[in-house]
Amino acid sequence: MIEHSKGNDHELWTKFLHGNDQVLSLIYLRYVNALYDYGSKITPDHSLVKDCIQDVFCTIIRNRQSLSPTDNIQLYLFKALKRQLVREIQKSLKYREIDPDNSGRFEISFLQSFDHTEFELSDEQKKALISAIESLTARQKEAIYLRFTRGMDYKEIAVILNLNYQSARALIHRAISKLREILAGKTNYFSQILLCIFRKTGKGVLQQ
Question: What's the whole-model pTM score?
Answer without folding.
Answer: 0.81
